[in-house]
Amino acid sequence: MLDEAGQCREHYRACGEWLASMGAEAMAAKRAEADLIFRRTGITFTVYGEEGGSERLIPSDVVPRIIPADDWALLERGLVQRVTAINRFLADIYHGREILRAGLIPAEDVLENDQYQPAMIGARLPHDTYAHIAGVDLVRHSDGAFYVLEDNLRVPSGVSYLLSNRRTMMRLFPDLFRRYQVRPVEHYPALLLHTLRAATEVDSPTVVLLTPGRYNSAYFEHAFLAQQMGIELVEGQDLFVRDSCVWMRTTSGPQRVDVIYRRLDDTFLDPLVFRPDSTLGVPGLMAAYRAGNVVIANAIGTGVADDKSIYPYVPEMIRFYLGEEPLLRNVPTWICRRPEDLAYVLAHLPELVVKEVHGAGGYGMLVGPTSTAAEIENFRRALVANPGNYIAQPTLALSTCPTFVDEGVAPRHIDLRPFVLVGREVRMVAGGLTRVALRRGSLVVNSSQGGGTKDTWVLDAPARGGSAASAGQGAGLAHDPVGQGQVSASGAAEGF
């Protein structure tokens, strides 16, 4: 919100004036009301490992994150470019493997990757679309540029919180909305349904959302999106395969299913091909899929492209497939399976963030600048024992956003997850899910580790009214030097 001189940036002026007019008690009351709305709506997140999986309310901060129209235009172009190239890459590695033949990516990094699915080799998908829904995690560095932290392509989650945050903010703060021209996000379910229907050549297709069930951490989102799209929410036992087609059990008899929006991982989808002990999937699903009689979104085998060891090659994918320079930057990454990279990482562990290539949820990683000597040495032993399981990245000075916390309004570190939909064309709603590290000094935004979310406002035009003079006043605005510190680019966003 504030520039280096402590003055309110142009697009935040009206918000700064509004904050100045709000007292700490009024803000606290609004936050309590927001929590009550979320609790009544059932917007929770399951944290595994605590009493068998405890449900928590996801904190929703009451100060919006605001993005100017010009910044969003750049992000939108960069996201379209990136997701287009990734889809080209996925089609290539399961067919011609031209990028591997060109030597731009080591073949073993792809073909020996745990997420690479040999069952997909040679499979033909409509429009060669593998990632229909992508959640791309972004941060902004002190140099002003946006950096991509990771690409979520298997079962990206969090869009329900984006939509719920907007509804809650519109209800609680209509006066603040009147000061801005904010681009809408409410049409995301309609865009998602359009994308899923466009994924097949069938006229008037039947679309279902396949969930692992109510014990899954994101079950609220599964039910929410199915309800919003007006499609059936099904579990594996609700579907069966006959004559290489997928059918849904209904009270009026079997109904043919054309598109499955799946919210479970590859290995659970078909016990005849993947895990034989899976009770969550549908026996024979892979045969129906390879026969072209059903579309699965996202496609089986997309996980190889969101593996952290493949992430460093995305800029090369853009150059190779599109003949363009990347519009969005990657964070520099050391791949620890390479001996020279491993040597550098071991020599600089206190300065770096080291992550498991398949890790998620903020677990299984070392944030060097905030770790103890003992933690660093323990991680060093794990890294030496299995270097291929890790990548490392430097620290960056991440942007912060005003956030209402116990001591008032203070800076907290944020990331952004826009959701990109790939159908006959690439589309997205303006903005995304802003996740915020609510704990002072925290580098991790994940809900499972104390993070929260914010409403993200992309502007259509400059705000009306507001002045820099009142920014930084009122609402118990707190000085927080942690907000100006060095934080991990790669530690900010792991899973949801």
Topology at a glance:
Layout: H1 13-21, H2 24-41, E1 44-47, E2 54-57, E3 65-67, H3 69-93, H4 98-101, H5 107-111, E4 133-140, E5 146-152, H6 159-172, H7 174-177, E6 181-182, H8 188-198, E7 207-210, H9 219-229, E8 232-234, E9 239-242, E10 245-248, E11 255-257, E12 259-262, H10 285-290, E13 295-297, H11 314-322, E14 329-330, E15 334-335, H12 339-347, E16 353-356, E17 365-367, H13 373-385, E18 390-393, E19 395-396, E20 400-405, E21 408-417, E22 419-422, E23 426-427, E24 433-436, E25 452-454, E26 456-461, E27 487-488
Parallel strand pairs: 3-26, 5-14, 7-8, 7-12, 12-13
Antiparallel strand pairs: 1-2, 4-5, 4-22, 6-26, 9-10, 10-11, 15-18, 16-17, 16-18, 19-27, 20-21, 21-24, 22-23, 24-25
Commentary on this structure:
The chain is α+β, with helices and mostly antiparallel strands and 496 residues long. 28% of the residues lie in helices and 22% in strands. The protein is built from 13 helices and 27 strands. A 5-stranded mixed β-sheet has the order 14-5-4-22-23. A 4-stranded parallel β-sheet has the order 8-7-12-13, with helices on one face. Helix 3 crosses helix 11 (314-322). The chain is globular, with a radius of gyration of 23 Å.
Task: Summarize this structure briefly.
The protein is of the alpha+beta class. It contains 13 helices and 27 strands. Helix 10 (285-290) links the parallel strand 12 and strand 13.
